[in-house]
Structure formats: structure tokens, C-alpha cells
From TrEMBL, chains A, B:
Domain Thiolase C-terminal: 239-381
InterPro entries: Thiolase (IPR002155), Thiolase-like (IPR016039), Thiolase_C_2 (IPR055140), Thiolase_N (IPR020616)
The protein's Enzyme Commission number: 2.3.1.16, 2.3.1.9
PANTHER family according to UniProt: ACETYL-COA C-ACETYLTRANSFERASE (PTHR42870), NON-SPECIFIC LIPID-TRANSFER PROTEIN-LIKE 2 (PTHR42870:SF1)
Superkingdom field: Archaea
GO MF assignments: acetyl-CoA C-acetyltransferase activity
UniProt xrefs under CDD domains: SCP-x_thiolase
Keywords: Acyltransferase, Isoprene biosynthesis, Transferase
Annotated GO biological process: isoprenoid biosynthetic process
Name of the molecule in the record: Acetyl-CoA C-acetyltransferase/acetyl-CoA acyltransferase
Keyword NADP belongs to the record: no
Chain segments annotated as transmembrane: none
Amino acid sequence: MDRVAIIGASMTAFGDRDAWLLALLAEAGDAALTDAGVDGDDVDHLYVSNMASGEFEGQTGVPNALAHDLAAMPAYTARIDQTSSSGGAGIYAAWQSVASGASDLTLLVGGEKMTHRTTGEATDVIASLTHPVEYKHGVTLPSFAGLTARKYLAQYDAPRESLGKVAVKNHRNGLDNPHAQFRKEVDLETVLDSPMVADPLRLYDFCPITDGSAALVLCPESVAAEYTDDYVVISGVAGATDTHVVHERDDPTTMRGVVESAEQAYEMAGRGPDDIDVAELHDMFTILEFLQSEDLGFFEKGAGWKAVRDGVTDRDGDLPINTSGGLKSKGHPLGASGVAQAYELYQQLLGTAGDRQVDAEVGLACNVGGFGNCVTTTILEQP
Amino acid sequence: MDRVAIIGASMTAFGDRDAWLLALLAEAGDAALTDAGVDGDDVDHLYVSNMASGEFEGQTGVPNALAHDLAAMPAYTARIDQTSSSGGAGIYAAWQSVASGASDLTLLVGGEKMTHRTTGEATDVIASLTHPVEYKHGVTLPSFAGLTARKYLAQYDAPRESLGKVAVKNHRNGLDNPHAQFRKEVDLETVLDSPMVADPLRLYDFCPITDGSAALVLCPESVAAEYTDDYVVISGVAGATDTHVVHERDDPTTMRGVVESAEQAYEMAGRGPDDIDVAELHDMFTILEFLQSEDLGFFEKGAGWKAVRDGVTDRDGDLPINTSGGLKSKGHPLGASGVAQAYELYQQLLGTAGDRQVDAEVGLACNVGGFGNCVTTTILEQP
């Protein structure tokens, strides 16, 4: 079967943006179309990955408005929501639109506008994805992260400092990402001394609240070269769910959605963990980077923290992880994050990642919704 | 290419339901799986078409919760939103999931829970899909419908009574639909004497606010017979957009999204308007049934009202329209409506529509978001 290619990609600056969602989407969408060398009227399908434009800014029907603003009418549009992994779900939807023959050219734009709301309001919207019983007892996502981190540290004899090293590494990478929300190095002491949020996790173990957008242009690989010499292919993409009720899981240190979606994506790509040269993982909380790096098969269970400690996941290590700065430093505009992961891999595979450049032919992105409730895994490769 | 089959379908009772969205979705999803003779763990992909669970009941992440409640984990899930045409967009997404080879068995469940909110709150959420400038000037969807109806009546020399006849016909059909919200006949006088909403449209020209859910089970046609003898195929499906800003349209009595999506769906199916035996149209307002019946090519422009007047679209007419009762009588739970349209066609094509049964081999559903902002058209056929 003809594979699906990414012939254009972009992201906006992430951070505290003085613009509504539609403007952010238009900025990224326009830049991705320009990168691909196509116009709005070349677009057959336009997908917007976004969790909560209605809740955050009282505006729905945004995909239709975006089709208008990008002069893409009468392109088909829809919004894809998978909470914090909406971006990965958007990639899967965009892939399906091309792979099914429904669209010859698809634009995916992910985005979220959040910083105009208070932290309490924003976290209330995010918390609405959890199970009401857990939520009403106060067990929100940060609480799950704290409980899971505590269990992980005990189970695998890992020191508290190991978590902090994820933050230090990802901030170091983000320093070289012109689009990152936080472009500053942090040392381990700063992380370990930051305010406690959910023991053992402290403020610097968490990603920020962010505005931003990212976009991809997809078409069949068979015609990609007609548009550009600089493209990558989606060799694998899949998604899976885990329990909505987190306390029903046998062991929260294993993310079943990651394991399942990765198995399917590896099989589709004819690849395994050893083939991956660079990865973007969903480090909404530092502990999640350990869990994903293990559940994706990069490292043995319980060995993820040692890989970070030993520099294996540094930019000059064997398997660089979160060269973009990750959600931790780059920021996490929910619907954009999965798309921005793919944008980073696109740059790494095309050799346009500037100071962040690593040597990579195959990249993997893992986008996590909720506390692993729904997960998508995407594998990108040089053609 | 292998076509996509619908091997199971269902809908819940529509109306004022004492249940949250998740329970309604589980009710329809479970019934559709039973109809197809499969279990939750047979499901590869699970799509939920829903506009606004976050706004209406403060709950997001519903697809994940549904995967849990239907024992469908680790099935991939996502929410598809296209405002009031989310159901049609869900059909397109589910079709793509099977046609692309990503899923061997897909469950689509559409639903909305609205009646627990006041009419003002519900219409505020719906109005958020319109352009802010129009909305803030008070030009909401009912206003557009009134303005367009007035123009249509003048342009095509149609009497006010012609609109009322849509309501009379669809209520008569809904009387025989056990799932309909309103099972009562209304006479023309009642419609014409009902309270004015947006001149010339009166209360009985509008669909109600509704709770409900509907579901479909899809698989490749090549394996459909392994599940059941009673299935239909999706021979055509497509979607298109029109301007988000309604006053930018050359002529609001032509819905460009209907024209474009129908052209593509007809081409895909190798069918034309003359091949359609039964149709479910999006009669959110009575005037919309005229516009769609013309823009789909069933009748000449300006002749839709005469077809209703002459009984052509009655159950015993040449082209029965809205045998289910339509949104007008059956109700309009936003994310469910497009899926429920397909459920009606599924029954008509399988000969299980009971007192509503008409003679049909090919059916068409047209699902409209906003005031024609985004539209999907689906053609279903006997195998």
C-alpha cells in the first residue's frame, strides 16, 4: 500500500500568546502550507485537533472558521478530540483520510488557547477528562503522577533525583528551540528545591499551561516528490486505550495504552524499539518519560531512570529523547502537543533542527491523553 | 476497492432522558454491538460523535470512558466534532478507519445530552458555532433560518403554508417511530398558529432540544457476511464546508456544502439523485428540507416546496423524505442526529422499518452543521 507522506510542517511560538485559538491555528496552518508549497484551495480535508475551544473560549465550529480563514473552502473539516492526546489522534485521522483515498491532500492543525484562563479554571477543564469519582475525591492527574512516581521510585530503587534529571535534560534541549515556552536551563538543585505539588513531584516536574499551534500537510507518498524533495513518511501509526478509572489498573507504572499502540505501530512500520533513533515522549510529568521509554521497549522495565542518569537520552546519547524540550520546556497546548512532536521529528529527519540536530533516520512520537487513558504512537522515517 | 458495510445499528429513545451522555452512548453502543452479533472486545476503533459534552455536562474524555463501559479496551477511541453534523462526520471517520485498513471493526456512537440545561443555556452553546460578529449582533441560527425562509418564499413564489407542510409530514412519520421525541400528529393550522420565532418561521418550524444516542457497527464488505446476512453498504460518503460567516454567501437559499458533498458522494457511489429511493434530510428548521432537497438534485431549484405540497416526499410518494420523522419530530441530539439518519436508512434498506417501511434499495442522508457551514452526505445501499 502507498504510504502517507508529510510534505510540510510548522509550529507557532508556544507560550503566553495574545491571540485567540483561530488566529493561532491560522498562523500554523498557513506556515505549513507555505512549507509544503501549496495553497488553501489544494486542501481536500482539514482536521483540527483541539480538546476544549468551547470550554476555554466559548467558541465552537473552529474548523469551519479555519477553512474560511485559510481559503480552503469547500474542504471537508472536522475537530478531533482525544483530550491531551488530541494531536496524536489528529495525525491518525489525517493519515486515515489519505490512506483511505478520501483526501489527496490533508492539512492537520492542532492547537489550544489556555493562558487567558486562571490556572484553576484551566485545570478544572483538564480534570473533566478524569473519572468523576476519582476527580471528586481529589485524585486529579498530578495526584496520579505523584502516586505513580512514588511507586516507581520504590519498585525500581530509583532516587528522587532521577526524576529531576528529566526536567534538567528537557530544559537544556528547549534552550535551543526557538518555539519553546521556557528557554532557560535549570539545574538539578532548582528542580529539587521547587515547591512540592504531589509528593515526590515538585513544580519543575510538571509542564506549564500553554497557548500554541502546530500543523502538518499530508499526501500519498507516491506524489510527495511532486510537491517537494523534503518530506518524511509515516511508516507506523496506531492508538489504544487504558482504563478510564485509573485505580482499576494492575500496576500504574505500566501504561497499557503505550504498550498496545507501540506494538501496533512497530508492526505496521516493520520496526522495533532498536530501530528508533530519536523520540518525542509525552513528559507532561517527568515520571511519564520513564514509563513511556520503558513501555515503548527502549529500555527494560525499571531501567528508564538509569538511561536518563547515564546520558543515554541526551542529544549526544544513543537515543535522544525530547530534543524539542518536550512538553516540560516547550509547553503543552493540549491539541497542539502531538502535532508539535511530529514537527520536531520532521525537522530531525530532514536535518533542519539547527542546534538541536541529532543523527536520525527513524523517529517515534508518543502522545498521551489523561493518565495514559488514550495513547497514540507514530513512527516517522526518511523516505 | 472493498466497500465498507454497516452490520449493526441502533438508537435509543430520543427525548428528555434521565441519564448522562455516557449512559446514553453505552445504551446505543451495546444495542448496535448486539445487533451485529459482536462483543466489545471485537472493536478495533470506537468513535464518539458529540459536539459539546464538556459544555453541556462538564465531562470530557467520554470516548475513553465508553471504551471502558463497553469492555472495548484497548480499542482506539476519539471524539469527532463537527457541531450539529458531528454524526455525519462520525460516519465519515468510521468509514475512513475501515477503508484505510486501520480497523477491521469500528463502532461509531453519536450522542448528546442537552435537556438538563435551560433552553437559553443550550442555545448559547449551539450559538457558539456561529461567527462571533454575527452572533453578537443577534443573528443566530433561527434568525438565519427566518431570513432565508423569507427570501425563499419571495424568490420562488411559495406560500407560507408550504413550510408548515414539512412539519405536518414529518410529525406524521414520527408518529410511527417508537424512538421519536414527539409522537403526535400536528395539523397545518396548529403549525401556522404556533408562536412566532423568526418571521416567517414559527415554533413548529423548529426541531426540539433532545437527549439521545445512535450507533453503527462497520466492517469491510468482504467480511460482512461472516457476521450477518442483514447488512447495508456505504457506497458514497463525503463532506464539504461553506462560509463560517453566513452573510458572505451569494445566495443563502443555496447550501454550497450540500451541493459539494453530494457531488462527491454521488460520484463515489456511481449514483445520481434519480437513484435515491429514500432520504433523511436535516430539517432542523422546515426551510432546510426545501433547500437540501433541491441542492441534492432531487428537485429543481425552487421546486422543493411543490414536491412537499404534492405529496412526492410522503411515505407513499415517489421520494419519501424523513420517514423517521426527521429532526423535527424525532428530535435533534446534536452528535446523534447524523448517526440516527443512517439508522433509519439501515432499517428502510433491510425492510425492518415497521409501519414506516417504504420500498427502497438506495438511501441518502444529509447532515448539516451550523447553517450549512459544514455538511456530510452519505449514500447507503443494499449489498
